[in-house]
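Batch job 17 of 40 flagged for manual review because the log was empty.
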Amino acid sequence: MNKLLETLASWKFWKELFIMTTAMLIAAAAVYYFLMPSNLIIGSITGLSMVISGLFGLAGMTVKVSLVVTIINAALLIMAWFLIGHEFGAKTVYTALILGPFIEFWEKVLPVSKIMEPGSTSLMGDPWFDLLCFVLILSASQTILFRINASTGGLDILAKIINKYLHFDIGTSVTVAGALICCTAFFINPFRLVIIGIIGTWINGLALDYFTAGLNRRKRVCIISSEHERIRKYIIEDLQRGCSLYDVTGGYNGKQKVEIQALLTQSEFANLMNYLKENDIHGFITAGNVSEIYGDWNQKKKKKI
């Protein structure tokens, strides 16, 4: 109980709750405004729910897509809890269960019929434009959630399981799981729309990998300078980042020097370069992008007062 109260009282809990709620509100808007009107079946649990809802419709029964989404997500959450982890499972419980209600929220607040042209079957007037809008918006939402160890639920749960146990990139995992779901669309959609859905699933995986790499991108900076001690102090005391020092030997003149290596964000790298320029510190500098970092890199040192 004490641990629960500490969690509820923490800034991290409320910040992540706000992020998850906002991301899911955006994802629900993408589903309601771009996916459902065009009847596109993208490789997602929402797409599978649209197929199931359509099959019930053929049988003369009316079942809302939002209801089917909620039911399927509830079942998949059990898998997330046991196969991925309690934190991911708990967060996904929240995000998955609010997707259906958020879809209905947009339906009541701003019905798509009010903003869609009369006689049109999609918001953008073309299924390809609807597909691109949906994929870009959903991929951004998924990336934000994966970054805080959460997900939109459904397909993301299957993708996370594939990512964890088969070590595929998260975008590839989404594509593999989504392609299987796309095939169910043959029950209610013509061949053309199914192919569009499969292509959309593939683009979703590519966009997800792109956004994920962008958010995780860091600069690996290597500096060889006679004033390495000043640079080291600036990195540690001002940027509050760690660094490594290596003894190196110049291949041309054989002189012994010290190389500093550090992993910095884009803004920290810019600050470091400004510091070197303003203080007229010379050296040999190389920098490259890194998109995968493991360990305690994000734990900054606290400044001593």
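Reviewer: the log was empty due to a logging misconfiguration, but the result itself is present. The mean pLDDT is 79. Unflagging and moving on to job 18.
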